[in-house]
Amino acid sequence: MASAQLLSLTGISKEFPGVKALQNVRFDLNEGEVHAIVGENGAGKSTLMKIISGIYKKDSGEILYKGKSVSISSPFEAQKLGISIIHQELNLMPHLTVAENIFIGREDRRPGRVFLDNSKLVDGATKLLKELDLNLDPNAIVGELTIAKQQMVEIAKAVSYRGSVIIMDEPTSSLTPAETESLFKIIRTLKASGKGVVYISHRLEELEKITDRISVLRDGEYVQTLKTSETSIPEVISLMVGRKVAQDQRPENRKVSSEVVLRVANISDRHLLKDISFELRKGEILGFAGLMGAGRTELARVIMGADPKNVGEIYLHGKEVKIKGPSDAVAAGIGYLSEDRKRFGLLLGQDITFNVILSSIPRFSNKFGFLKVKSATGIARGAIDQLRVRTPSERQYVKNLSGGNQQKVVIAKWLTRDCDVLIFDEPTRGIDVGAKDEIYRLLTKLAEEGKSIIMISSELPEVLRLSDRIAVMCNGRLTAILDNKDATQTNIMEYATKFSEDLTAVN
Q: What is the pTM of this model?
């Protein structure tokens, strides 16, 4: 017996000033189904989800919910119908408890009651968390939880509405493999109870594990819907980008100079890092691998002066540099692309031009401090063309760009600064396979032009594809530096999970 249809969208179109976000898109979801929507950044996935969840209003088309035509004018209307969404950007109150966040806006407000019935909230949250097999304390303050546990709170909140449709937008972007498996267990439980799950993820390998069907969008238009069991990831990628994208590549025999540009000697901090030393050569991509909490980002922040080191030295072109803050690092010629581009890499309320020149403002200012608009605009337009940023113009606010295009603007900022050393921390997190391919090409081109690159990534295929050498960290220590030709996912994970006292491996 065929499953009943929960949701059906036909002819959905949406236009913003200068941008046609969706054009005649269709999508449907059945009971007890996990249906993925995939596409490059800017393909229209988030716009479509915001229409379903009432954040945006469609310009045209029809939405059927359980066979009835509906007009979803607000998120509250969507929730009343039974549609919940878990956004990629967490939407929690950090000063409230887990229980308060789960049931926010639905607390007991009986007449005459002055205070909330906290015990009732905790009881309800405890029951729900047990049902979902989530190891969370309902009384814990959300702001004190890890990002992964905050993600689990969002999931519990969405399920608490007891609706029929749950939209998950990049739910595993901050989760470890073990936490991802826990999420998949929850999704299978929801599926078994007849819920429909709309699943968006740039981690395409997840689709084979958890989805029943996959719908592909490209440039705001519907391309095709496939049964997961009858397709392959390369076929999905080809439909997404309109071309074949090479997978599991290794770097070609790129000539790396013997000249040492950056030398880090015996770096330790007061919390995690212990006696770390390495060299970065001109034209080299040095990949950093390791599990979450290994200390890769902490090391990058110490090099940039964002966090203090306890002992150790940093040398650039053979001379020791004193880096007391990020401005010292930038002045010395080091650029840092943070893993959290929205907090530390961009001014979201400013346009592309201002963000591109952000690290080089004196260069684009006259002696009176006024911006040289023509010069700045020319640089921004050149960056847009070079990096293929999808935008109506250089005056577009960065907050309106997709994740992949935002990342390209951050890269443009540091290219404009013309740094000798570039540190890329999770350069492709949260962006699609097509944009990833473009960034891979860009990093390779920068190395060929003589830039020295440190690339931190949690994706081993990415590390193996780009790096000339691979530095592996575990528990704040550097456990190995491997030539790419000697590296495999297996031996990288061995060094990432077990510290070796054999320091001869670290060369």
A: 0.59
